[in-house]
Amino acid sequence: MTASFSSVAEVAVPAAAAVMASALPQEQQQARPRPRPMHAGGGGGGGGGANGRHHAYSRKDKSLGLLCSNFVVLYNRDDVESIGLDEAAKCLGVERRRIYDIVNVLESVGILVRKAKNRYTWIGFGGVSISLRELKERALREKSGLAPLQTEQQSAATISEDEDDDTLANPGAYIETERLSQTVDKPSGKPGASGCRLRSDHRKEKSLGLLTQNFVKLFLTMEVDTISLDEAAKLLLGEGHEETNMRTKVRRLYDIANVLSSLNLIEKIHQGDSRKPAFRWLGRATLNTENGVTVAVPPPGKIASKKRAFGTELTNIDMHRSNLDSKNKKKAKLVQSSGDVLTNCKLAVRSRLGQGKQSGFVYGPFHPSGARKHGLDGGNKPGQRERAEDWESLSASFRPQYQNQALSDLFVHYVDAWKTWYSEFAQGSSIMQQHFGHPVNHFL
DNA sequence: TCATCCCGCCAACCG
DNA sequence: CGGTTGGCGGGATGA
């Protein structure tokens, strides 16, 4: 079953270079989607008509939490200093917009620091404690002192700013919660240092990052260590809240909670009685291996579906930035950089694999349950041969899991590279060369 | 049915 | 003015 793409994946393999080359061309897909949601008839077809069944598209495969885990796995290394958003988006097979989401919350808890446009610096989990400490201090200060928990948003809300939805119109209190830079030093010469940040703060007030911090503050200051998102939203909005505002706020909290969960900073729990789950503060950021990395991207052949083409593909990697097909020109740039990007991904993954510890890599929603990271953690023992074989079987069992040819190839390549490297390392050198027949570094 | 939350439009920002 | 950010909420998916 699920013939369609799985077969594609299986076949896929060789020519890595060709893959990336081909991966770019068709990305432009159709012009911008419609002004209004599709869903309607579209979904009907059951996706590609009759046989819509194949496995399934599952939103879980694309959740922010999972993406965050993948992101962390990809960059949580010492040798990572700079992270490019496009690069990340490409590596993770998601659109840039999603990267902004996780990057914002990661930054708000100190795991990342924005270095420049499109550029972030990886701080790592070590930055979390510092960030949290500072956050708590600030929270307590605010709590005891003057400022309420959050920015003017609250005051505005409290004042009953119902209706509207325009903009919180209430430029009164700009607490400007010390930007989101909360972390260690901020980029030295922060530009607009000289006042004039106020105006633009409106937007920031509702930022995911700030909301994340306020959400976290809730845990840091309150006695209770669990809270439901509804409660959190209420607290963050103030009484005056209005149905719509609440809904929106809760949506964002869901997003935040998901990534914080993936960082193990919080944990979702089901309180026996209450229908809705709540979140418990754990406070120690670590890589959540619960949900492993998923490197699933759509087959290069077609990505077309503008919107959710359920059942036809798993992820839309479409790197078409915003929209307007009119901007194909920049593609060239992407093509050019794709090599680096992939190389980075490759290195990242290799390093992960090389560590031999279960770093949470799981290849897509369809990975064979049994195969899951077997060979990764199982290989604690020095049996070199077994290890090598593990890798073979590993690659064999995982290869088909990729929905993206490029990644599929990539993985195959990792394995090959690893085998080569490993064998050379374990026993003299060249012999293996015959086995695998090709040098390790020849990627594009 | 309702909770969950992905997706991408499009406006604010910024160089 | 074009590219970058990212708020926002429609509506699909899951329980």
Automatic annotation (TrEMBL):
<feature type="domain" description="E2F/DP family winged-helix DNA-binding">
    <location>
        <begin position="203"/>
        <end position="283"/>
    </location>
</feature>
<keyword id="KW-0805">Transcription regulation</keyword>
<feature type="region of interest" description="Disordered">
    <location>
        <begin position="146"/>
        <end position="168"/>
    </location>
</feature>
<feature type="compositionally biased region" description="Gly residues">
    <location>
        <begin position="40"/>
        <end position="51"/>
    </location>
</feature>
<keyword id="KW-0804">Transcription</keyword>
<dbReference type="InterPro" id="IPR015633">
    <property type="entry name" value="E2F"/>
</dbReference>
<feature type="region of interest" description="Disordered">
    <location>
        <begin position="24"/>
        <end position="55"/>
    </location>
</feature>
<dbReference type="InterPro" id="IPR036390">
    <property type="entry name" value="WH_DNA-bd_sf"/>
</dbReference>
<dbReference type="GO" id="GO:0090575">
    <property type="term" value="C:RNA polymerase II transcription regulator complex"/>
</dbReference>
<keyword id="KW-0238">DNA-binding</keyword>
<dbReference type="Pfam" id="PF02319">
    <property type="entry name" value="WHD_E2F_TDP"/>
</dbReference>
<keyword id="KW-0678">Repressor</keyword>
<keyword id="KW-0539">Nucleus</keyword>
<protein>
    <submittedName>
        <fullName>E2F transcription factor-like E2FE</fullName>
    </submittedName>
</protein>
<dbReference type="GO" id="GO:0006357">
    <property type="term" value="P:regulation of transcription by RNA polymerase II"/>
</dbReference>
<feature type="domain" description="E2F/DP family winged-helix DNA-binding">
    <location>
        <begin position="59"/>
        <end position="124"/>
    </location>
</feature>
<feature type="region of interest" description="Disordered">
    <location>
        <begin position="367"/>
        <end position="392"/>
    </location>
</feature>
<comment type="similarity">
    <text>Belongs to the E2F/DP family.</text>
</comment>
<dbReference type="GO" id="GO:0000978">
    <property type="term" value="F:RNA polymerase II cis-regulatory region sequence-specific DNA binding"/>
</dbReference>
<keyword id="KW-0131">Cell cycle</keyword>
<dbReference type="InterPro" id="IPR003316">
    <property type="entry name" value="E2F_WHTH_DNA-bd_dom"/>
</dbReference>
<dbReference type="GO" id="GO:0000981">
    <property type="term" value="F:DNA-binding transcription factor activity, RNA polymerase II-specific"/>
</dbReference>
<dbReference type="InterPro" id="IPR036388">
    <property type="entry name" value="WH-like_DNA-bd_sf"/>
</dbReference>
